[in-house]
TrEMBL record:
Ranges in coiled-coil conformation: none
PANTHER family linked: HYDROXYPYRUVATE ISOMERASE (PTHR12110)
Ranges of residues in domain Xylose isomerase-like TIM barrel: 26-232
Gene3D superfamilies listed in its UniProt record: Divalent-metal-dependent TIM barrel enzymes
Protein name according to UniProt: Xylose isomerase-like TIM barrel domain-containing protein
Record SMART domains: AP2Ec
Length: 266
């Protein structure tokens, strides 16, 4: 697996300051969170010169970037002019920063079926627009009114409709556990064939707490055991950088025991 960290861990900082802090801490793969007025949302207002400075900073330090697109206003499941314009701005950013992937939520639609179809169509357009090296990654989301992508089955349908090897799924462990606490491992297993990576964060099944592994009740041991031989990107998306680093150390130490994984998924 490959280890990465989200700038969400430093959400209170401006995006460039967050990037510099993560580089100084030794991270060489960074997912840029495109939300927060004083954080990732500021990327949308940067001119080419400023973005090129960030790109240069990344190259000098051999950093690979991923880009979590904005959530508010970006709605592939029911695209409108705002979604189109946001995508143009995000594409501009993705091209200059030469991101490895763009990641996004599918959005909302009164009809889940129509939302799945709309999201697949818009995703195909995104793939046509993106540089060939950049992958497209969709993420599962918590249950919310009219939300599309709360179940793995919905994500799989979108990926199958896109039908492109550059499209895959980011499994957010926290979101999945909130939605399917008692069927968590079975729900995760569904997307194994389509996985790009994991957003790793813990919670107690009630809210999106973004804790480190072990602070909540997500059964990480059997999940990580089942995936340990896969070449995936593990993105630590906790609410502090310390928690991300602690979770990374847990994964690197493979600190699960045989008795922890007796009922693991295969």
């Amino acid at each position: 697996m490959k280890y990465s960290v989200s700038t969400y861990t430093l959400f209170g900082l401006p995006i460039e300051a967050a990037i510099r802090t993560l580089i100084a801490k030794g991270w060489n793969s960074i997912e840029l969170m495109g939300e927060g007025i004083h954080h990732g949302r500021s990327l949308l207002d940067m001119d080419r010169e400023h973005l090129e400075k960030i790109a240069s900073l990344g190259k000098r330090n051999r950093i690979s970037f991923g880009f979590h697109l904005p959530i508010d206003g970006f709605n592939p499941a029911l695209p409108n002019e705002e979604t189109e314009q946001l995508w143009k701005k995000c594409l501009f950013i993705a091209e200059i920063l030469e991101v490895d992937y763009v990641l996004f939520h599918l959005g909302t639609n009164p009809s889940v079926d129509n939302g799945v179809e709309s999201a697949a169509r818009f995703s195909k357009k995104m793939l046509r627009d993106l540089p060939e090296k950049s992958k497209l990654v969709i993420e599962n989301v918590p249950h919310a009114e009219m939300a599309v992508g709360t179940s793995m089955d919905e994500l799989i349908k979108v990926i199958q409709m896109i039908d492109d090897p550059r499209a895959s799924i980011m499994l957010d462990t926290g979101h999945c556990y909130m939605n399917k606490k008692h069927q968590f491992l079975e729900e995760c297993q569904k997307v194994f064939p389509y996985l790009f990576g994991l957003h790793i964060n813990d919670n107690h099944g009630l809210s999106d707490e973004h804790l480190q592994i072990g602070e909540g009740t997500i059964p990480f041991q059997p999940l990580l055991f089942a995936l340990e031989d896969r070449e995936l990107k593990y993105v630590f998306e906790t609410n502090t950088l310390e928690r991300a680093e602690n979770s990374k150390n847990f994964v690197k130490m493979k600190s699960w025991r045989i008795e922890d994984v007796e009922n693991s998924i295969k």
